[in-house]
Amino acid sequence: MHKAKLVNSSAAWVLAMLISHPVAYSADSKTDSHRIEDKDITIVIGSRTPDQLAAFYSGRGFNQASIAAIKKTCFVFGMVDNKTYDTLWLSLDDWKFHTVDGWPLRRYKRDDWKKIWQQTGLSQAHQSTFGWTQLPENRDLRMHEHVGGNVAVEWNDAPFTLEATFRTGADKSGEPRTITVENLTCNSN
Amino acid sequence: MQFKLNRRAFIISIFLALHPFHAGADDGAQTLPRGIITVDGQEAPPLVLNDINGDSVDLSQFRGKWVFAHFWASWCGPCRREMPTIQAIDSEFKGSGLVIVLINTAEDEDTVFDFLGTVAPDMNTLLDSDGLATEKWQPRGLPSTYFVDPEGKLRYIALGGRPWDKGEYLGFLKGLIKKE
Fold first, then answer.
1. pLDDT the model gives residue A144
2. Element (H, E) at B9
3. B23 in reach of chain A (CB within 8 A)
């Protein structure tokens, strides 16, 4: 059974949050997606298959070398909906992927993809399209704003965990939220 | 008596703290529909692109009017849902103080023709073929709509897709023209 945990700075805070922020969690085995929801935030995390990605990007004219690079990578999709915070900060550097043994999994950033595209000869237009399908590296999510997209991590055959921390408040001084999603997998075809 | 008043004030303050009012706006401005936020009034980035007829359009040619600058792509689901509502308002605001400008992000002409022909056949769009003009505007995602005031300054952003032909959104657009 998948589990979602809220990690906060003290046990008292955790207790207070659990009372005031009941968290609903569900996992959909058909789409391998995990939905974590409370009154403040909704997060959906899952993974795409290499064939799904290849079909999407091939359909938009990406060249074969670029498709091959995409298919070698594990793409996790994410959707974050800020329901009540005046500002919720998405910063992918605060998203930590690791194996069940605690080994960190590498996340491919936009600069990493630029180097890959230079090698595969992907056109500027297609690089732009690819960029728009990824979650932004940093984003201030206003109240009622949501954002969705992919995050690329190195391929791993075993289940892995995401610990995603979000800072809150316009000046980032609010209580951070950390959400842990276990049993994520790189979805093979 | 003093105690009763203090107790009443205390109860009211607790009630207010537990039941914050949401006026429907995201930034505290009570007249803005949900998902529309104000921005700081900086100058809109330059934008000169060809439309699907091959005609060059410079955004600065619309000075003196509000501009609804909408960035979109055919692969984006919310764009597909939102586009018919933009076509609906386009005819309503034609010749008014609000100009609707679509900017397609990084797609080829065939893709754009196919999409608009199906979803919003009356609409024209600018073609940001390599996506670089879009990146200068730094949209928060696709779709994104910016409102540029008659002086060429950014005043509002719509977060994600919005039903522009419906109630409060249509009222917001009409309100922009009335301001001038």
1. 87
2. helix B2-18
3. no
